[in-house]
Structures are given as structure tokens and as C-alpha cells.
Specification:
Blueprint (H helix, E strand, L loop, with lengths): L7 H7 L10 H19 L6 E7 L6 E2 L4 E15 L5 E2 L5 E4 L5 E6 L27 E7 L10 E7 L12 E5 L20 E5 L9 E9 L4 E5 L15 E5 L3 H16 L7 E4 L6 E4 L6 H10 L8
Helix pairs in contact: 1-3, 2-3, 3-4
């Protein structure tokens, strides 16, 4: 699944499309994931959360044995399970902490021990037990992605809930289900209505504590108050959800969201045009337009500030 870093309605507002005018929606829907992918590739980041297990070597340049830090090579939002090279399951804030303390984290640091992440006991070359196999010996499962101020920001309560009497099953790849009102605006968080491209988190702690499923909205019918969504995305698991299940929406990093909106709108304004320079010789006065090579300058500036510049990341 391709990340969507903005929604259809956000781009429609940027290009000032009149309400009810949907003739260009297919073009916008086609370009949002393309440009979102470009943004991910340029910045070497992902801005939609995903769940994954990654393996790390227990010896090498990714480990700082002096300060007992492990470079994750990608930002992490929440560690779920951390297993060291000696097959010990570590506990957050007891055996290790996330660095920096404010999200997104990029390293894990061992605490309350005299050794670091290197395979064996000790650190550095002064006291180290050489392993038989240190490659891919450390296992880290977590929720990954770039979002500042997580978990206080990121998932937003849409104030929506499932209204289907029987809920939805845990098997369909794509499901259509009813919610309270997809066109409603969450006045508490000032977030827009649920729209095509939104990533949803369904969760109901009364069923099974700390369980969730992520979905991507692919169609909205405000008249019937229904959403059609792609199920179990980004490593989450499809589950059965009953009547009343709460619906949360993912709030993409604000400047990245704006960059995506601006870039899609720029592509829309230049559709069918390929020249870098355009001369307007109309009677009202000659003008020369010089277009950026690929994207608006303000978009490139945003992406340069967020790009992961490290070489040799995992």
C-alpha cells in the first residue's frame, strides 16, 4: 500500500474546486500517492505509521558501546518488543530508553547495565566476548514512522464510531461500513471530516485491551454515512469490530502534509505542460513564466528540512 500524505478534500481546497465539482477527482486521486511516494523517497522517511520487526547486528558501526546506543536507521514511534543479542526481552525505561526522549526516536540506549548492545559481556574492545553469530542478533518490533509530539499528537479522535448493528468482520480485504457522520468536523481538534486518503485506526479496549487495526479510506458516501476502506494496512491485523467501535484518524506531520497538498496542486495546475519557460504574448501585456524544474520551491524547502541526511542507514 502506498502512503497518502494528504487527502482528496485538502487538495480540492488548495485548488479552489467548487463544492460538487468532482470532474477532476480521478486525476487528483491518481497523483496523491505518486507525490507522496516522491516525498518519502526524497526525505528518506515515512510519515504514516507501520508495524514491523527489524533485525540489527550486535557489532559494527550502528552501535556506540561507550554510550550504549543502537542506531535504528529509521524513526520509531513506539517500541513494542526489544530482544537483545543474548535473547533477553528488554523492558522500556527499565532496561533501555528511546533517544531522543521526544518523538520520533532514532536510537535505543541501554540503562542500568555495565554493557551495551554488543554481543557478549562488556563494551568496547577491553572486555568483549566474541560471538559465534552476531549478525541480525538484535530484534526490535515496533510502530515506526516520523511524527513529532507522538503520542500526544498523531492519532486524533474523529468523534466517529461504527453504527452497523453487526459491526464488521475480520476477514474482508476491503470493507464498507457505516459511521456516525463522515462529513462532520471534530470541533475539539479542528480536524476536517473523514475523507478519501485518511488512515483510520479502529480500536475498542472493551473487546481486547490495546488492540487496533489500521485502514485507508478509499471512498466516502456522506449521504449514506458510509466509508469504504482497505483493511489491515501497514502491518496491522484485520479484526472483527462491533457496533460502537471508536474511529481515529492519522494526522500527518503538518509541514509534510502541506508539502504534499502544494505539490499535488502544482502538478494539477501544470497538467499537460512540459516546458520550463512559457511566454505569454497576449494583448494585455507580454509575460514570461519560469517554472521550477519539478516542484514548487516552498515544497523543496520543507523537504530539505525533514530529510534524513545520514549515510549508511539500515
Amino acid at each position: 500500500m502506498v502512503d497518502w500524505l494528504c487527502t482528496l478534500s485538502q487538495v480540492r481546497r488548495e485548488i479552489k474546486v467548487l463544492t460538487g465539482d468532482t470532474v477532476d477527482d480521478p486525476y487528483l486521486i491518481e497523483n496523491i500517492p505518486r507525490i507522496s511516494t516522491r516525498i518519502n523517497n526524497i526525505t528518506r522517511q515515512r510519515y504514516i505509521p507501520w508495524y514491523e520487526l527489524y533485525y540489527y547486528d550486535a557489532f559494527g558501526p550502528g552501535i556506540d558501546d561507550v554510550y550504549r546506543k543502537l542506531d535504528l536507521g529509521r524513526p520509531i514511534l513506539t517500541p513494542v518488543t526489544v530482544v537483545d543479542a543474548l535473547k533477553n526481552t528488554l523492558v522500556l525505561n527499565t532496561d533501555y530508553v528511546v533517544v531522543p526522549q521526544d518523538s520520533p526516536g532514532v536510537q535505543l540506549q541501554r540503562i542500568n547495565v555495565i554493557f551495551g548492545w554488543s554481543y557478549g559481556i562488556g563494551y568496547g574492545i577491553g572486555f568483549w566476548l566474541a560471538p559465534i553469530q552476531f549478525q541480525r542478533a538484535i530484534q526490535i518490533t515496533g510502530i515506526w514512522g516520523y511524527r513529532t509530539n507522538y503520542p500526544f499528537e498523531g492519532w486524533v479522535d474523529s468523534l466517529q464510531a461504527l453504527t452497523d448493528t453487526g459491526g464488521i468482520n475480520g476477514t474482508d480485504v476491503v470493507s464498507t461500513f457505516k459511521v456516525t457522520d463522515p462529513g462532520a468536523i471534530n470541533s475539539n481538534a479542528q480536524t476536517p471530516a473523514i475523507d478519501v486518503g485518511n488512515v483510520l485506526q479502529l480500536t475498542n479496549t472493551s473487546v481486547t485491551p490495546n488492540t487496533y487495526e489500521w485502514m485507508q479510506v478509499i471512498a466516502v458516501n456522506e449521504t449514506n454515512k458510509t466509508l469504504t476502506a482497505l483493511r489491515g494496512i501497514n502491518g496491522s491485523t484485520k479484526q472483527a469490530w462491533p457496533l460502537g467501535t471508536e474511529v481515529f484518524t492519522w494526522d500527518v506531520q503538518p509541514e509534510i502534509n502541506k508539502a504534499c497538498v502544494r505539490w499535488v496542486a502544482y502538478a494539477y495546475s501544470r497538467r499537460g505542460a512540459f516546458e520550463a519557460v512559457k511566454n505569454d504574448l497576449s494583448p494585455a501585456g507580454a509575460k514570461t513564466y519560469v517554472y521550477p524544474d519539478d516542484a514548487p520551491a516552498d515544497v523543496i524547502h520543507i523537504l530539505e528540512q525533514t530529510r534524513d541526511w545520514r549515510w549508511g542507514i539500515v
